[in-house]
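Module 6 notes. Inverse folding takes a fixed backbone as the condition and produces residue identities as the prediction. Think of it as a translation problem where the source language is geometry and the target language is the twenty amino acids. Below is one complete input and output pair. Work through it position by position during the lab.
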């Protein structure tokens, strides 16, 4: 019984200001990793990007260069986790204020596909293309404070979701022009931490993809993200 109990404890990230990470197969805050990933992607898709560059209505973290929009759509919810972001590729260094007592959702590598984003309009193709995208990941990196995670360890956190419902706003992400409900799937590598106490933290994550074939969502992709978190 003791061994069984310990297997569900979060792994421990050693070092100063250590942050515990929930192991794969557990239920952080009462939800499976897949359920958290679906909620994260619903949040991503719900945020408008604005109709023009630098549009004041654009509060999507994907287009943010400083971190000022990191909490968009998150402060007035009862979610137990705070979502960190992707950036669509490239290098970004963000400073972000986070409410104390929430876990962190870290998308080291991610892909989302919805019906408006593919030509076939077939659910099975969403799954096939999303899987191929993340099958094509060439590198993964995560550092939380002074704890570095090996690529082998990060690969244990891969999640491919079932089909889920999402809603695109006007001026949606990923070039989608059709506002309203849709079906979507997700894949990728995601880690969730225990509640983070007040303090300052640095989290760095990187990923790269090299995909061959006409059915790739992107043939070449790399992101390099650094968060300076002010938890208060």
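Target side of the pair, the amino acids:
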């Amino acid at each position: 019984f003791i061994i069984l109990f310990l297997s569900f404890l979060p792994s421990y990230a050693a070092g100063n200001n250590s942050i515990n990470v929930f192991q794969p197969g557990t239920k952080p805050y009462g939800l499976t990793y897949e359920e958290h990933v679906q909620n994260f992607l619903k949040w991503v898709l719900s945020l408008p990007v604005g109709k023009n560059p630098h549009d004041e209505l654009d509060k999507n973290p994907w287009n943010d260069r400083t971190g000022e929009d990191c909490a968009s759509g998150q402060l007035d919810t009862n979610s137990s986790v705070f979502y960190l972001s992707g950036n669509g590729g490239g290098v970004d260094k963000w400073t972000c204020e986070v409410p104390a007592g929430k876990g962190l959702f870290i998308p080291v590598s991610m892909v989302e596909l919805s019906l408006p984003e593919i030509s076939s309009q077939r659910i099975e193709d969403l799954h096939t293309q999303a899987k191929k995208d993340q099958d094509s990941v060439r590198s993964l990196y995560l550092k939380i404070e002074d704890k570095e995670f090996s690529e082998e360890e990060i690969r244990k956190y891969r999640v491919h979701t079932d089909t889920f419902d999402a809603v695109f706003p006007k001026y949606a992400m990923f070039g989608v022009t059709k506002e309203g409900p849709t079906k979507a799937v997700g894949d990728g590598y995601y880690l969730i931490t225990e509640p983070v106490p007040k303090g300052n933290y640095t989290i760095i994550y990187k990923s790269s993809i090299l995909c061959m074939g006409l059915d790739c969502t992107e043939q070449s992709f790399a992101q390099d993200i650094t968060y300076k978190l002010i938890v208060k």
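Reference fact for the lab report: Residues 112 and 186 are 5 Å apart (CA to CA).
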